[in-house]
DNA sequence: CGTGTAAGGAATTCTGACACG
DNA sequence: CGTGTAAGGAATTCTGACACG
């Protein structure tokens, strides 16, 4: 509800380039390496979210540290996996509490 | 701090058109009538914020009700004036409290 | 590996103007 | 008044490729 703007894909690659300082070439390359996932508009142009931009900021730092895109991707997948596991676990706990006591937990 | 994305001018007119359903002609016209205030990118293209888009949604409703752009502008200015007055009054109260008691009020 | 660049085409955006009603 | 449209130019974006190291 809050933060709803953060993930809307509405920013063109030119604007992302302006904000991040990256060249369009770099931005497209990081997509090729599956570090960011812009959507496409009807006409086929890439659309990025504020979240994508923040993601790029982190990528810039890693690249400067000499980390390779492949490794950055590994780290991202690892974090995602942990998040998923946490979610499954929490959902399960909520489900059991609900089944036994009919309690509505706040998410 | 929160809501920081809402007012960043990063969306091109084409995207605004897609989201709102308005033609570019209409969007530019509402700017001419001083109902919205996009910024310009380095190259001179208009950039809108999520807030602008919400503003446009309200404008659409008013227009459909038969309200003229001039009147919509009047209403906007009136609301702005009230907000300003409230702010001045509150700032003054805060200032006096602070002067007499040195209390830090939360804004 | 990560990035630059030249290439050509397609789509975008801009302004000022004429039109209708 | 609010909106459509044709006009011409300038800037954007896209893809696939070659280059360097």
From TrEMBL, chains A, B:
Residues 53-80 form a coiled coil. Signal peptide: none annotated. Keywords: Coiled coil, DNA-binding, Repressor, Transcription, Transcription regulation. SUPFAM superfamilies: Putative DNA-binding domain (SSF46955). The keyword DNA-binding applies. It holds the Pfam family MerR_1. Residues 10-78 form the HTH merR-type domain. This is MerR family transcriptional regulator. It comes from Ectobacillus antri.
């Amino acid at each position: 509800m809050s933060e709803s703007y953060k993930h809307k894909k509405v920013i063109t690659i030119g604007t992302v380039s302006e904000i991040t300082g990256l060249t369009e070439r770099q931005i497209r390359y990081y997509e090729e390496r599956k570090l960011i996932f812009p959507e496409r508009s009807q006409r086929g142009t890439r659309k990025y979210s504020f979240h994508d931009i923040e993601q790029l900021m982190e990528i810039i730092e890693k690249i400067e540290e000499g980390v390779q895109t492949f490794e950055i991707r590994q780290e991202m997948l690892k974090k995602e996996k942990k998040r998923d596991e946490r979610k499954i676990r929490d959902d399960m706990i909520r489900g059991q509490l609900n089944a036994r006591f009919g309690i509505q937990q706040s998410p």
